[in-house]
Amino acid sequence: MINNILKGIQGYTGALALISKLKLWKYFFIPIIISIITASLIALSAYGLSDNIGNFIAKIWPWDFGKDTFTWISTFIGVIVVVVIGLVLYKHIIMALSAPFMSPVSEKIEAHLCGIELHNHRQTSFRQQLWRGIRINFRNLGKELLITVPLLLLKFIPVVNIFSIILLIMVQAYYAGFGNMDYTLERHFKYRESIQFIRRHRGIAIGNGLVFILFLIIPIVGVILVLPMSVTAASITTVELLKKDALLNTTKPLV
What is the crossing angle of helices 160-185 and 67-97, to 10°? Predict the structure, then answer.
C-alpha cells in the first residue's frame, strides 16, 4: 500500500513540464474557472455557517461558567465541520463538471506516453463524459459523506480524534484520486469496471489525492493549479497501470 501511495505521489514529477510540452493549458481554462467559483462559494458559506453551527453546539452547555470558552471551542469545531464538508463538496463538484474537459487532456497524455495517436478505446460524447463524471462523483460523494460524518463525531473523543484526522485525510485523498483516475479509465472501462480497477489500485488513488489536498492549502494558487497538476499526474500513473495490465493480459491491450 505504501509503495503504491508513493507511486501516486511520484506521478506529479514532471507533470508541469508535460502540460507545457503538450500545450494542454487551454483545456484547463474552463475547469479553472469552475474551480475558482466553486471554492469562492464554499468559502463564503463556510464563513457564514461556522458561527451558526458553533452556537448550535454551544446550546448543549447549560451552565453559565465556562460558557464563553465552550462557545469558542464549539465555533472552532463548526469551522472544521464546514471546511471538511466543503472540501468534500468542492472536490466532487469540480471533478464532475470538469469531466468533458479533462478527458481530452488524459487522452493526449496517453497518446504521448504510448507513442501513438489512436487507441482501441470506447468512444464517448461530451454529454456522456459529463454524465459519467456526475454519476461517478455523486456515487463517491454519498460514500464519502457516510464515512466522513462519523469520523467528524470522533473528533470529540480525546486521543481517538488524532486517528480520526488521519483517516479523514486518507478518505478525502482516496476519492480525489478516484475522480482524477477515472478521466483516463472512462475510455477503457465501463462504470463498474472502472470502480473495480481503482479498488485494486487504491494506493495510487490515495497518493494522487494526498497531493490534491495539499494543493488546496496553498491560497489562490492551489485552487488554480490543483486540477491541471492532479489530472496530469493521475493520467500518467493510470496509463502506466493500464500498460502493465495489458502486458499481464488482465485488460484489453491499449494498441
Answer: 10
Determine the Cα–Cα distance for residues 56 and 61; give it in Å rounded to an integer.
10
What is the pTM assigned to this prediction? 0.83
| Cα dihedral sign, 138-210-157-48 | negative
Residue 115: φ, ψ to 5°: 75, 20
Look at the block and give the residue holding cell 464538508: 85
Q: Which three cell numbers stand for residue 208?
A: 494522487
Per-residue pLDDT 10s for the chain (255 aa) are 889 999 999 999 989 999 999 999 999 999 999 999 999 888 887 777 766 766 666 667 667 666 667 667 777 777 777 778 888 889 999 999 998 899 889 999 999 988 765 455 556 677 788 888 889 999 999 999 899 888 877 766 767 777 888 898 999 999 999 999 999 998 888 889 999 999 999 999 999 999 999 998 888 889 999 999 999 999 999 999 998 877 555 444 454
The sign one gets for the Cα dihedral 4, 6, 7, 12 is positive
CB 203 within 8 A of CB 116: no
